[in-house]
Amino acid sequence: MSSNRCVALVLTLLAVGWTFSCGDGDAPPAFPGESLDASTPDASPPDAASPDASPSDASTSDASTSDASDAGCPVGAICDGAYNYAFVTSTDYAVTELGGVQGADAKCNERAKAAGLPGEYVAWLSSSTSNARDRLGTASGWLRTDRRPFAASADELFEAKIRYPLAVDELGATVPSSVRYARTGTLQDGTVSADKHCANWSPDSGGAVETGDPFAGNHRWTTLAAGSCQARTPIYCLGKDHATPLPPRPVTGRRAFASSAHYAPNGLAQADAICQGEAAGVLTGAFKALLATTTASAISRFSTAGATWVRPDGVVLWETAAQAAANAPLLAPPVLHADQTPSGFAWRWLGAPRIDVVGTTTCADWESSGASVQALAVQSTAAGTLSAAYAFNCDTGQIGLICLEE
What is the DSSP string of 328-376? Predict the structure, then answer.
C-alpha cells in the first residue's frame, strides 16, 4: 500500500473512532473490522442442538473423531457431557448501560437465563482492578451454544487457541456479519488492556476501548483494534461452572492449512510445491494451493465430491465439500500451519473475488512477482466466506497460501 493511501485510510478510521497502523509486523496492513464475508448468515446453524441438552445419541464409540453423523448434532460439535458455554450477546450495550464490570457480568447472566442456558457467566471485560481471567476462577473448557468447541481449556483460551470463532449468540444463532466488534478491554491472556478500558468503564469516558472480532480465529477475537467508548457493541460471556477441559473430538477429512512460507509468484507449480513441501513429514496426502487462474476458480482445482476439509487440529472448515464449491461461509478459518502452530501473518493470495469464480487479478496467472502487476488476497483469520477485495502488488513478498489436500 502506498504511504499516501495508508495515511488517507488512517484519517478515515480516526474520524469514526478507530485506530490503525500503517505497518503490521511481517504482514501487510490489516484493516480494523475488515470483513471476509459480506453475507455471513445470521440464522442458527442447521440441526443445532438445544444449548442446555446433552443428546444421548451423540457418537461416543470413537473418542478421537466426531463425524457428527447423528441427527441433531452439528458437524464438529460435542453433544454429550456438561461443559461451560460461551457466547456473544445478541444485545448491544453502551458503556452507560453496563454498570462497570460487575454490571456486565449481570448482563451476561440475564441473557443466559433468557435463553435457558445453565450456570453462571462472566463478561469478558477487564478493568484496572478486575481481569476477566481472574473472574473465571478455575473454569476451563468452553462450547459455543451450538455445542461446537470455542476453547478446549483455560490454557488454550489465554493463548488464543480458538477452535470455532465465538460468532454465535446465547440463542445459538450466528451473529450478523455486520457485528465485527465486541467490547473487551482485555488482552489475549485475559488481562486488562492498560489504556483501553473506557477509564474503567466510566459512563462519561471519552477514551478508547479494546475490541475483538467475534468471527476471528486467533488473538483478534479479543484484541483487534481500539474503538470508541461511545459506540454500542455486544459483549462476550463465558460460563464459569465447570473446570473440565473439553475432550478431543477432531473431525476426520481432508486437511487444510496456512503456509508458513510467503509466496513470491513464480508459477502455479511452485505454489503447489510449497504446500506439498510443508505437508511432507507432518501430513500424508497430496496438497495444492487454493489459487484461482484466469481460466479456473480456486476451488475447481479440487474435487468437491469427497470428504470436507479440516484443519490439522480436526476443526472443520465447511460441513461438506459441496459447501466449499458454493463458497459457503467458513465455520472456522485456516489459521494453523501443517504442524498445528498458529500462523503469524494473515494475508493469503487468492487471485479472485471468491473461491468459486475465475481469477481476475492473478499476478499474470502467478507467473510474475513484479511491481507492475497485482493479485487479490484474502485475510484468512476470520470465519465467513473466503472473499478477496484487496489487491497487492505481486512483489509484496509477505503473503502466503491456503493449502488444501486433493
Answer: PPBSS---B-TTSPBPS--EEE-SSSBTTSB-SSBHHHHT---TT-EEE
